[in-house]
Amino acid sequence: MKPKVTMIAWNQNDNYVVTAVNNHLLKVWNSCTGQLLHDLVGHADEVFVLETHPFDSRIMLSAGHDGNIFIWDITKGTKTKHYFNMIEGQGHGAVFDCKFSPDGQHFACTDSHGHLLIFGFGCSRPYEKIPDQMFFHTDYRPLIRDSNNYVLDEQTQQAPHLMPPPFLVDVDGNPHPTKYQRLVPGRENCADEHLIPQLGYVATSDGEVVEQVIGQRSVDQDEQGLEPSILDGMIRQLQLQQDQRIGADQESASSGPQNGEGTPRRG
């Protein structure tokens, strides 16, 4: 097999260069002379993650599709710590990305199964309040483009960054309880009626009445003209309130002295 470099990274002070090769080896080089200093052995599949420690020039992190995460001392060519991303009942999960915290005491990784892995010192109690499955309800909402080729949210016709804070849902789109919704920036002080998940009942094509969680409507239901979901209504209400507030601010600004032309608001 012809060796190919899959990833490259300098250490914190740029004295060393680390390359990941498709034969599963990591190579440490002197960045000034180009001399090969160490071969780091441990990975069993290709490596696409190399992260240097934010202030310790000796430390380098590597992670790969084999589920292995290594902390290396690249000056000595030795492994300091090893983690294996084992997923119960599914084997290992390939690690796609890793980043150190600014203080260098923690690092976070994402894997092929959608997990966020956090490693570091201390206990995990601060993270226990977070549910196992956590997504924004807007993560998979369709986008469109307007006549100016700007991106808009299809439902609200607003630029995504101007939309109200999203709701937290699980992998099936079921909204989380109020205590989790308040973790979203911008929702800390929302009224309970804007945070509490609600259930509705709809009739299927064969006449059976089933319970439905907000945010789980099908295209067929929309085409049949059924009552819109509570979540969609809440989003429209929040968007309307935000538009009214912006409009009031603009009116008050326009009533004052004008020093130049204002920037037109995109419809």
UniProtKB/TrEMBL annotation:
The keyword Cell membrane does not apply. Keywords: Repeat, WD repeat. Transmembrane segments: none annotated. Pfam families: WD40. Residues 241-267 are annotated as: Disordered. WD repeats lie at residues 1-39, 40-82. Coiled coil: none annotated. One of its GO terms (cellular component) is nucleus. PROSITE patterns: WD_REPEATS_1, WD_REPEATS_2, WD_REPEATS_REGION. GO terms for biological process: cytoskeleton organization; regulation of cell shape; regulation of transcription by RNA polymerase II. Residues 251-261 have a biased composition (Polar residues). The keyword Thylakoid does not apply. This is BRWD1 protein. It comes from Columbina picui (Picui ground-dove).
